Amino acid sequence: MTKPVRVTLPETGAAGALRDTAVSHIGFRVPDVPAAVQFYATVLGLVVQDELPDGGARLGWGTGHHVVDLIPGEKALDHIAFEVRDAGGLDAIAARLSSCTELDESYVDHPLGKVRGISTTDPDGNTVHFHSAVYRQGENAADTGRRPIKYQHVTLATSDVARMAEFYVGTVGFRISDQLADGGFAWLRSNRDHHTLAVVGSGQRGLDHYSYDLAEWEDFKAWCDRLTDIGVDVVWGPGRHGPGNNLFVFFDDPAGNHIELSAEMEKFHDDRVEYVPRRWEPVPNSVNLWGGQLAKWRHTSEGK
């Protein structure tokens, strides 16, 4: 019998330096910008807040910092971004990075005070923005049965989870909340939420999925009914993840990007207790506690 692979992802370097940092915006290259704009307006309630060059569109909740950039092109992840509210956090990240550039201030719309931002690339070549505080008053302002509360996390696909985790933990300053015991999936936190970033070893690069918050279980029934009514297939869920303990449902945008709706995510209190990263068995029932059903793109190394 083959011995199961077991890998412990280390927390080294700057691990835990970030405690007040959250995802802020995300950019996609999509082949049909108008179709994507219509989808995001109809399904998620995001509206055009600005026009981008070459027919692109910047979407948000109608007020406050934007959420999504849609850029014409073949399907791809263009960039991800984090709002850093930790005191001295931006300067500290910049000092730890081997290379970064000043971020174009146009990305930091609705700034809270002086605008500051940096741009870098992670080990997979994904463009990552880190920027100063912004107004986010468009969040938490809607019927959560029809519009999400906020954009909450992003999960990146990779062929090397250990290298990506080392960058985001050891260099940037995230902490590991959970991992699969084979090292094939890691959930990273930068505030009280169980994860604001995750990395999964799918063999691909770029986006695996990104997620919006709902409020409670009752919202999921309303959303699944409404998605069905407007012809959007639920492609995974409802279910509950083991890591994070959050409820979930997934559907796709017109370009094929996987979108998650989530609620009841576990909270961490690093200012009051010392946590040790947990290692979940790499089986379907860890990823989905409710029977182990997986999406066609999600796989585990054991328990198939």
Automatic annotation (TrEMBL):
Segments forming domain VOC: 22-133, 150-264
MF-aspect GO terms: dioxygenase activity; lactoylglutathione lyase activity; metal ion binding; methylmalonyl-CoA epimerase activity
Keyword Aminoacyl-tRNA synthetase annotated: no
Gene3D superfamilies hit by this protein: 2,3-Dihydroxybiphenyl 1,2-Dioxygenase, domain 1
Pfam families: Glyoxalase
Keywords: Dioxygenase, Metal-binding, Oxidoreductase
Gene Ontology biological process: L-methylmalonyl-CoA metabolic process
PANTHER family, sorted: METHYLMALONYL-COA EPIMERASE, METHYLMALONYL-COA EPIMERASE, MITOCHONDRIAL
Protein's name in the database: Catechol-2,3-dioxygenase
Species this protein is from: Kibdelosporangium aridum
